[in-house]
Amino acid sequence: MKITFHGAASEVTGACFLVETPGTRFLIDCGMFQGGREAGQKNLAALDFDVERLDFVLVSHAHLDHCGLLPRLCTRGLRGAIYATEATADLLPVMLKDSAFIQEKEAAWQARHENRRLQRAIAPLYTVAQAEACARQVQGLPYGREFQPHADVRVRFLDAGHILGAAIVEVWVREGRRKTKLVYSGDLGQPSRPVVKDPAAVADADVLLVESTYGNRMHRGIDETIDELVDAINDTLQRRRGNVIVPAFALGRTQELLAILVEQTAKGRLHGLNVFVDSPLALKATEITLKHREVLDENLLLVTQDRASLPIRIRFIEDVEESKSLNSIRSGAVIISASGMCDGGRVKHHLDHNLARPECAILFTGFQAAGTLGRRIVDGARSVTLFGESVPVRARIHTLGGLSAHADRGALLAWLRGFTSAPRETFVVHGEAETAKGFAELIRQDLHWKVSVPAYRETLEC
Questions:
Q1: In this structure, what CATH number is given to the domain that contains residue 375?
Q2: 337: domain range?
Q3: How far apart are CA 213 and CA 216, in angstroms?
């Protein structure tokens, strides 16, 4: 069996792993590269293999760095099915259609503003119509049920505890008389978090692909993080009389934040909140989340109460004009908006109107990839460029690492210690280069496993 690492190799985004045997070829994930100047070119250059020969695709979850190039894959000739969990299968159509819509809008904007002199068309990676066509190839399976997408392959999805529908992927591959069990961790979640359940344990694997996004650090405790969140909101809204802007992924982070805000208001720690969720995608993701109560954490307050009875005012913003009207609010608003790394979407407009105001606060609640606008802000930039203009950073910046949907170093090691025997090969993926190397060395020292960090587009025999 050969694995080619077409993404998420010595970097966080672009997860895409091509598995080949004499009898079958399939992909695990087909993600978009995000962040940095090279991301756009990498997305254009991705999928440089014979797509028509693929038998099927397995998708770990619905974040774009794991699924965002699926419509491009289908357009290039994928005829087989795309398999995911039931919740992910519900989410993929809305995530991919939203991605296509944003690409079309940004391509049109660039054509009008940045490329007038060049007089060349700027094409999106795929269109809304192509995203809709791709969604028809998606098939959803429940957690825990084995299925056979090919005569030589069996698959099972286990709960990864990351976002709704996120899966650890177990794959059994037969090559003649030889059988190999491949396990892909996907994105593992931090245990004991709201909304989703803890990651499932895996007992064994011959070949393991494990993520390492936070393999070099420990998160703050959830209680400490919530204390910081509450203090930041109260200080900004009550004392400074400003707004709180929260860049957040529409899927996963937004629902978790809403659950925490509801819970802390019910406890009397927050009062009279006006929360605006400025993302049509977040509304759809929230509605889908509430459909899948069977896979949610039993403590999720949002599931047990309808919105009218909640102790806070939550308003989902869909209309563009309504979104623009939020920019006239000078104080008292908590605005949750995508994208989570600030590289696109409506949050850039809210940053444009609030980032230069010292009475406001920007709360970062998730990983900011190298090269993104969010990463520049959390790294301490004194000014950033928004819509072609320099904007000073005067708002207070909070980075709440304890809310990350990714397992930290300790949780990753704890999950690995659940294996009853060492995998024959362990590959550390989905982490920035130094982080992945450091985590691989930690596995080597702590567990005494054979472990390596693949390079981008490297092919390895297993």
A1: 3.40.50.10890
A2: 222-403
A3: 8
* Separation CA 22–CA 418 (nearest Å): 32
Q: In this structure, are residues 145 and 169 in contact, taking their beta carbons and an 8 Å threshold?
A: no
3-state secondary structure of 139: strand
Are residues 42 and 181 both part of a single domain? Answer: yes
pLDDT score for 302: 54
Are 174 and 196 in a shared domain?
A: yes
In this structure, the answer to whether residues 387 and 436 fall within a common structural domain is: no
- Checking if the pLDDT of 119 tops 50, the result is no
> CA 340 to CA 404: how far, in whole Å?
11
**Of 178, 193, 188, nearest in space to 209 by CA:** 188
Q: Is residue 427 located within the same domain as residue 373? A: no
What is the rounded radius of gyration, in angstroms, for the C-alpha atoms of the chain?
Answer: 22
Q: How many domains does the chain have?
A: 2
Asked if omega into 212 is within 30° of 0 (cis), the reply is no
**Residue 441: exposed, middle, or buried by beta-carbon count in 10 A (0-12, 13-18, 19+)?**
middle
**212, 319: one domain:** no
Residues 51 and 89 in one domain: yes
The pLDDT tens digits for 402-445 are: 888 899 999 999 999 999 999 999 999 999 999 999 999 999 99
DSSP letters of 283-314?
Answer: HHHHHHHHH-GGGB-TT-HHHHS-GGGSSSEE
Query: Are 452 and 428 a contacting pair, CB within 8 Å?
Result: yes
